[in-house]
Amino acid sequence: MGFNEGVRKIDLRLLVHLLIGGLLCSVALFFLKNLIIIDLLLKSLNCLGALIFEEAQIGKKIISFGLIHLPSGFLGGLYTGYKIKERLKINLVFPSIIALLISAIYTTVILFISGYTGSLQFFPILLGYYFGLSADYLMGIIAPFLVMTTGVYLGGYTVSWKVEERIEEEIRFLKE
Amino acid sequence: MKVKRKIFGLRLPIAIFIILILTFFSTGYLLIYFTLLRNLSEDGECISFETDFFRFKFPRNWYARAKWENDSLCIINMLTTEYDSFFGLIYYKSWEYAQSIFSGLDLRDGLLITTFEVNRFYGELQKRSQNATLQFLRNGSLEISGYSAIYTIFRIENVAAENLQYNFTGIIIYFLTDRGAVEIVFYTWIDRVWEERYETFKAKILELLVIKRGV
């Protein structure tokens, strides 16, 4: 009984930290999306008009992966890695999934709050506007998710890196 | 075997993180830059853009959206560098489709079509701003890529948006091609820039627009 309660407590703690990690990811995604205006960056580089071409649109997406999705995943990963030490390989998948879900829920809520009751045609537009995601599955959902997950792993392992080093040093010390 | 745990004095994950950011940024930028280089005009000031139906040039720093196209339409739209004017080009791929859009109107009567479109635009603005007023400033004809086109210059005053008042001045141009129809829209919502932007629009876009024959 006591053991089961212990397991439940650990799971709940894990769940809360994963949720907070995911929330951090989506909040960072929201702010970075609105803070880093890639169009202005391209304007200062005198190549804004190139966005008329599909290749340039892909280029813009790739830039947003690097400046928006990767850092937001990294921030969520830092928190998650700081709070959770066990089974990082598995646990670090969840913050980015949670971040995607939160982004979708937030967008749906905004859509309903604004009083819009028609079809969901504005959903992808808002999702893109707020979070830089879109209905284009490969470049709009899957690729950002993978990049964000990479960011979460890098953030998560950044925190525990020191621990690993210390453990290695301890093992080396014991061997000697 | 000794495994390196740090790169440039940074923890490996942070080093990878920074390298990835730089890689994403430079890859994306190079993709955009080489796309730009491939399509720059001779003087390096404009971008040449071509579809199956038309080709035109526009200033390289105008904020262009990606071309939108389906079986019936091809749409281009962009903002000027200063974000104070809009340019849109709609290519109706067939007369039948154009007729379905301008239901009941004679497609050959360009003035009827431009007036209809100005009124439609005014109606859209009026939904948000009931005090808006419409003035037709001038109608006329001009030649674009060998086709005779009809234009209407209009002004819509007192358009309220986000606690500010705007006066729209713009032009709608329409003409039939061999198989379809073209509609061009250009307007600004800042009074004092109209003349200057319109001149740029005429010289850099309108006069260099080429509609391909047989389409």
Entry keywords:
heterodimer; A: 176 residues; globular; B: 215 residues; alpha+beta; Protein Transport Mog1p, Chain A; three-stranded antiparallel beta sheet; 13 strands; 31% helix
What does this structure look like?
- The complex is a heterodimer of chains A (176) and B (215).
- Chain A is mostly helical and 176 residues long.
- Chain A has one domain.
- In chain A, 81% of the residues lie in helices and 0% in strands.
- Chain A has helices at 2-35, 38-44, 54-83, 88-91, 94-113, 123-131, 137-175.
- In chain A, helix 1 packs antiparallel against helix 3 (54-83).
- The longest helix of chain A has 39 residues, at 137-175.
- Chain A is globular.
- Chain B has 215 residues and is α+β, with helices and mostly antiparallel strands.
- Chain B has 2 domains: 1-39; 43-211, 3-Layer(aba) Sandwich (Protein Transport Mog1p, Chain A), CATH 3.40.1000.10.
- In chain B, 31% of the residues lie in helices and 39% in strands.
- Chain B has helices spanning 12-39, 95-101, 110-128, 194-205, and strands at residues 6-7, 10-11, 46-50, 54-59, 63-64, 68-69, 73-79, 85-92, 133-144, 147-161, 164-176, 181-188, 210-211.
- In chain B, the strands form 3 sheets. In chain B, strands 5, 6, 7, 8, 9, 10, 11 and 12 form an 8-stranded antiparallel β-sheet that branches.
- The interface between A and B is large, with 40 and 38 residues.
- At CATH level 3, the topology of the largest domain in chain B is Protein Transport Mog1p, Chain A
Radius of gyration from the alpha-carbon trace of chain A, in angstroms: 20 Å
Q: Secondary-structure element order of chain B, as H and E?
A: EEHEEEEEEHHEEEEHE
Oligomer: heterodimer
CATH architecture descriptor text of the largest domain in chain B:
3-Layer(aba) Sandwich
Percent of residues in β-strands of chain A: under 5%
Report the C-alpha radius of gyration of chain B, rounded. Answer: 23 Å
Q: Into how many domains do the coordinates of chain A divide?
A: 1
